[in-house]
Amino acid sequence: MHSVRAARTVLASFGHKVSTAGRGTSAALSKALSAFAPRHPAQVIVLGFAGAIAAGTGLLMLPVSKAGVGGATFLEAFFTATSSVCVTGLITVDTPVFWTGFGQVVILMLIQIGGFGVMSFGALLGVLMARRLGLKSRLSAAAETKSHGFGDVRRVLLGVLGISVTVETALAVILAARFMAGYGQSLGEAVWHGIFHSVSSFNNAGFALYSNNLMGFVADPWICLPIAAAVIIGGIGFPVLFELGRQYRRPVHWSMNTKLVLVGTATLLVGGTVFLTAVEWANPATLGGLHPAERVLAGFFQSVITRTAGFNSIDIAQMNPVSWLGMDILMFIGGGPAGTAGGLKITTFAVLFFILHTELQGGTAVNIFGKRLSRAVHRQAITVVLLALALVTGSTMFLMLITDFGQDQILFEVISAFATVGLSTGITAALPPEGQFVLILLMFVGRLGPVTLGAALALRERPILYEYPKERPLIG
Fold first, then answer.
1. Is the model's pLDDT at 77 over the cut of 60?
2. How many domains does the chain have?
3. Which residue range forms the structural domain that includes residue 321?
4. Taking residues 145-154, what's their average pLDDT?
5. CA 328, CA 407: separation in Å to the nearest integer?
6. Average pLDDT of the segment spanning 163-185
7. Which of 153-157, 312-316, 446-450 ranks highest by mean pLDDT?
8. Among residues 152, 143, 192, which one has the least CA distance to residue 172?
9. 100-130, pLDDT tens digit by residue?
10. What b/e readout covers 152-190, taking b as 16+ CB neighbours within 10 angstroms?
11. pLDDT tens by residue, 211-246
12. What is the mean pLDDT of residues 192-219?
C-alpha cells in the first residue's frame, strides 16, 4: 500500500512538473512570437506592402506572365512588382511587349491594391489619431473641420472604394470610346486599354500599354485631359475629396488641410505649366513641332503628371536639363496627403513656406488661413524633409559612383523613384543590378516613408513634465 501511494505521489509530482514545463514552454513561445508581431500601425502597413510585393514578384516570375519562352528573372519581376504596388511606374522592361495579358492583369491588380491601400491607411490614420486623443481634443478637431470626424472604419473604406470605382469607371468609358472612335481599336481591346489606363491614372501609377507611353496621344485632348483629371482627383487625397463632398458650397468651413491642398495644387499646376511650356516651347524634340494650342496642352499634361504619375506625352530624355531640374522640384513636392500621389506632399512644403514667411516677418506664431499651426507640426515637417533630402542625396552619390551617367539624369531618376512618380530620362533599364535595387528601395521607402513616419511622429507624441533652460546658438 505504501509503495502504491509512493508511486502515485511520484507520478503526480512528475505530471505537475510536466504541466508546469508545458505552460512555461507555451508562455515562452508566445512571448517569442509576440516579439515579432507588429506593435505599431506603421509596422502593419509596411508588412502589408512588403507581402503584396512578394506575392506580385512570385506571380510575375511565372512563365505565363512573360511573353516568349521562360519566365521573368527575379530582378525584372521584383522591380515591376515594387513599381506597381508603390504606384510608381518606373520600368526596366517594355510593359506591352514583355508581359502577357496575364502579366498585365497582375500589374493592374497590384496597382489597384497599392493605391487603395495607401488611401485607406491615410484615412484610417485620421481615425486612429482621433481615438487616441482625449474628449476635449476630439471635440476641437471636429469643430475645426466642422464635422464629426472621419467616422467609423467601415464607412471610410466604403467611401474610398466608392470614389475609386466611380472615377475609374467614368474614365474607362471615356477612354474606351475614344480608342474605338478615334483609333479604330476593337471593342475588347478598347475596353481593356480603357480599364488599364483608368486604374493606372487614378492611382497615379503611370503604367501604359504602349511602348512610347502616351506620346502617340500628345495632341489628343480626349485622351490627355480625362487622364489628367483622374490623376488630379487621385492626387489631392481622400480627406480633401471627403470634405469637398460634404461642404463643397461652403469653402469658408473647409479645414486647413483642404485649403492648403487646393491652393497648393492650383499654384503648382499653373506654375508648372507655364514653366515647362516656356522652356520647351522651341525645342523641336518635344514641343517645338506642335501647334501652339497643342504645346499648351502638352505642357499642362506634363505639369500634372510630373507631380504625381509617370505618364509622358513627350520624350523626357530630349527635354532641356533646365526642365529636368524644374521637374525634380515638382516631383519632390508631390500631391496631397492620404491619396495616391507621391512626393513629400503639398502640405509639408506649405507648412515650411509659412514658417519661413513668419520668420521673415518677425512673427512668433505661424498662422495659416486664420488658424494657428501647432508647433509639433513644425518639427514633423522639418524632420520629414531633412530625412528625404539625406536619402535622395546619398542615393544620387552612390549611383554616380557605380555608373557613368550624368548627375542631372541620376538625380532625376532618384527623385522620380523616391517620389513614386515614374518618369525617366531613359536610364532605368541601363542601370546595373545594384543600381536597380537602389531604385526599388527608394520606391518602397518613398511610398511608405512619409506616411509611416508621419504616423510614428504623431502617435509617439507625449507630454513632457520638465524643460531645460533655453539657449540660442548663432545662426547664419
1. yes
2. 1
3. 39-459
4. 46
5. 12
6. 95
7. 312-316
8. 192
9. 999 999 999 999 888 877 546 544 555 445 4
10. eeeebeebbeebbeebbeebbebbbebbbeeeebeeeeb
11. 999 999 999 999 999 999 999 999 998 788 888 888
12. 95
SS (H, E, C) the chain: CHHHHHHHHHHHHHHHHHHHHHHHHHHHHHHHHHHHCCCCHHHHHHHHHHHHHHHHHHHHCCHHHECCCCCCCHHHHHHHHHHHHCCCCCCCCCHHHHECHHHHHHHHHHHHHHHHHHHHHHHHHHHHHHHHCCHHHHHHHHHHHCCCCCCCHHHHHHHHHHHHHHHHHHHHHHHHHHHHHHHCCCHHHHHHHHHHHHHHHHCCCCCCCCCCCCHHHCCCHHHHHHHHHHHHHHHCCHHHHHHHHHHCCCHHHCCHHHHHHHHHHHHHHHHHHHHHHHHHCCCCCCCCCCCHHHHHHHHHHHHHHHCCCCCCCCCHHHCCHHHHHHHHHHHHHCCCCCCCCCCCCHHHHHHHHHHHHHHHCCCCCCEECCEECCHHHHHHHHHHHHHHHHHHHHHHHHHHHHCCCCHHHHHHHHHHHHCCCCCCCCCCCCCCHHHHHHHHHHHHHHHHHHHHHHHHHHHCCCCCCCCCCCCCCCCC
Residue 475 lies in a domain: no
Q: Is 164 in contact with 200 (CB distance < 8 Å)? A: no
The whole-angstrom separation of Cα 298 and Cα 305 is 10
CA 440 from chain centre, in angstroms, equals 14
Considering only residues 370 and 100, tell me which one the structure prediction assigns the higher pLDDT.
100
Lowest mean pLDDT among 50-64, 362-376, 424-438: 362-376
Q: Does the pLDDT at position 32 exceed 60?
A: no
Is 22 inside a domain boundary? no
Assigned domain for 33 exists: no
| C-beta pairs of 17-23 under 8 Å, 24+ apart in sequence | none
- State mean pLDDT over 190-195: 97
Q: How many CB atoms lie within 10 A of CB 449?
A: 19
Distance CA 77, CA 280 (A): 35
Give the pLDDT confidence of 400-451 residue by residue, as tens digits.
999 999 999 999 999 999 999 999 999 999 999 999 999 999 999 888 876 5
CA pair distance 47, 85, nearest whole angstrom:
13
Q: Is residue 190 part of a domain?
A: yes
